[in-house]
Structures are given as C-alpha cells and as structure tokens.
Amino acid sequence: MVNFVAVFPNKSVNLSLRQRHFNSRNVADGENIAHDLENAMMAIEIDKISGVVTDNAACMRAAWKILEAKYPGLICNGCAAHALNVLVKDVCKLEPYATILESSRRVTSFVKDRNALTKRFERIQQHMHVDGELSGHQGFYVRPTEEK
Description:
Blueprint: E1 2-6, E2 14-20, H1 30-43, E3 51-54, H2 58-70, E4 75-78, H3 80-91, H4 97-112, H5 115-128, E5 129-130, E6 133-134
Helix pairs in contact: 1-2
C-alpha cells in the first residue's frame, strides 16, 4: 500500500489524498508509482510542488527518475528519518549492540513483570527529574555487598 500525503507551509498535513493497494495484477513498480504520484500531484496542482519524498525502495527511486525527467524542476529524494531508522536497525543487529539490546529487553521485561519494582523505578525517575529535566546530580547508589 502507498499513502500520499501533502504538506503545505501554512496548513496542517492533509492525510490520505490517495491510497493505492498493490497486488499481483497491479505491481508496485516505478512506472505505476510515478503514475500515481503524478495523479496526486495534479490533484493539488503540479506547479505548487517542489519536491517528492519517499522511502528509498528501488521502485521509488525508479519513480523519481521518471518524474524528474518529466518535471525538470522537481526534486525527488528519500526520507532522511526513514534512512536513519533503517541504519539504526541494522546497527542494532551487530555485536556488541545486539547483546546489549537483548540484555536491556530482559531487564525491562523483568521490571515490567513486577508491579512493585515498576512503581519503585517510577519514584526514582520522579526524584531524578528537576524542572522537567533529568538532573545530572541524581542517580542510583549501588550498595556494595558484603562477601560471606
């Protein structure tokens, strides 16, 4: 599925100008996506559009080439937030990040499964916040254990 969104400087975001569902008969290739993007652009007047932002999928990049050739002033590019999200997901699969992430998930699950512990963490968080900011002077004190 492809959603089309238009953003105007002095207005809120208009969601779902058009929605397109792709299936085996209606393939999500560069030509079809370029055609749908062009239809969405015509609905809001092409001369008001300076750029198109999509994810970085191959079919989207193919659509960019078609649209930029047809409309020389149009700038098409990938979404930086989407690219960063994909990058972070890939980095989190590498060691030692994957191990740290898994350990963090286990600690989070442990705390969330114990109501009293969750409440204690919430009290500590409230204590550590000063005027809405995390205070650098507050923190946890780890009491050394005595060896037996």
